[in-house]
Design brief:
By secondary structure, this protein is an all-beta fold. Helices cover about 0% and strands about 50% of the residues. It starts with a strand and ends with a strand.
Length: about 120
């Protein structure tokens, strides 16, 4: 069973950067993986997706600021967050790209952006 463990969140000032990591197990490589986030009182939204191992797409709200990548030898998916804004405050999760069967959700990693 695939397990996903997110880490790297924390408290950051607006304009700063963070790099989130998602370590996966029980699968040799990912080709279709995505980052999601859920702000307090809101639904979980798609932030960034990687398909076919390299094609990336981003939500309009993070385009130009966030970069998603996969390092399959390390079994790790990354989300580089730059120029963060208070609206980026949320719990961040990784999971299958929309259209693919989701895996069990991990605990996520909390990101808090102070203004």
């Amino acid at each position: 069973q695939v397990q996903l463990v997110e880490s790297g969140g924390g408290l950051v000032q607006a304009g700063g950067s963070l790099r989130l990591s998602c370590v996966y197990s029980a699968i040799s490589r990912f080709r279709n993986i995505a980052w999601y986030r859920q702000a307090p009182g809101k639904q979980r939204d798609l932030v960034a997706s990687i398909t076919d191992g390299y094609t990336t797409k981003y939500a309009d709200s993070v385009k130009g600021r966030f970069i998603a990548s996969i390092d399959n030898p390390k079994r790790t998916v990354y989300l580089q967050m730059n120029s963060v804004k208070p609206d980026d405050t949320a719990v961040y999760y990784c999971n299958a790209t929309p259209g693919f069967s989701p895996y069990s959700w991990g605990q996520g990693t909390q990101v808090i952006v102070s203004s």
